[in-house]
C-alpha cells in the first residue's frame, strides 16, 4: 500500500456501488464512497470483479470484452496487480 501511494476509485455496476481505496497514508483506507480526485478509476460489473478476484478470468480478458474500463493513471491499477498481463 505504501509503495503504491495512490487513490483508486472502484465503480461497480450491476448492482451499482462505489468504493474508494486510498493508499496515501500509513494506514490504507478502503470504504464505500467516492474520492474527490482519484489517480485511477476502475469500472466493471460486480460479477466480473468476483471472477477477476478468484482468478477465473484475467484483466486482459475483461478488457478485450470491453467489460473492464480503466481511466486515469493506468500504472496505479497495474501496481495493484489488477492489470497483470494487460500492459
Write the layout of secondary structure elements.
Elements lengths: L6 E7 L3 E6 L6 E4 L7 E6 H9 L4 H7 L3 E4 L1 H7 L7
Parallel strand pairs: 1-4
Antiparallel strand pairs: 1-2, 2-3, 4-5
Describe the structure.
This protein is α+β, with helices and mostly antiparallel strands. Helices cover 26% and strands 31% of the residues. It is built from 3 helices and 5 strands, in the order ββββααβα. It has a 5-stranded mixed β-sheet. β1 (7-13) and β2 (17-22) form a beta hairpin. The longest helix has 9 residues, at 46-54. The radius of gyration is 12 Å and the shape is globular. The model has no long low-confidence stretch (mean pLDDT 85).
Could you list the spans in which at least 5 consecutive residues all have pLDDT below 50?
none
How much of the sequence is in beta strands?
25-35%
Gap from first CA to last CA:
20 Å
User: Gyration radius, to the nearest Å?
Assistant: 12 Å
Shape: globular
Total of helices: 3
Secondary structural class: alpha+beta
Mean pLDDT metric = 85
Question: How many strands, what sense, and barrel or not for the largest sheet?
Answer: 5 strands, mixed
Amino acid at each position: 500500500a505504501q509503495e503504491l501511494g495512490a487513490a483508486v476509485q472502484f465503480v461497480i455496476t450491476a448492482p451499482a456501488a462505489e468504493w474508494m481505496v486510498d493508499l496515501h497514508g500509513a494506514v490504507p483506507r478502503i470504504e464505500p464512497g467516492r474520492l474527490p480526485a482519484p489517480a485511477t478509476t476502475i469500472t466493471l460489473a460486480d460479477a466480473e470483479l468476483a471472477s477477476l478476484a478468484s482468478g477465473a478470468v484475467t484483466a486482459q480478458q475483461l478488457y478485450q470484452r470491453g467489460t473492464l474500463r480503466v481511466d486515469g493513471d493506468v500504472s496505479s491499477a497495474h501496481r495493484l496487480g489488477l492489470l497483470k498481463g494487460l500492459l
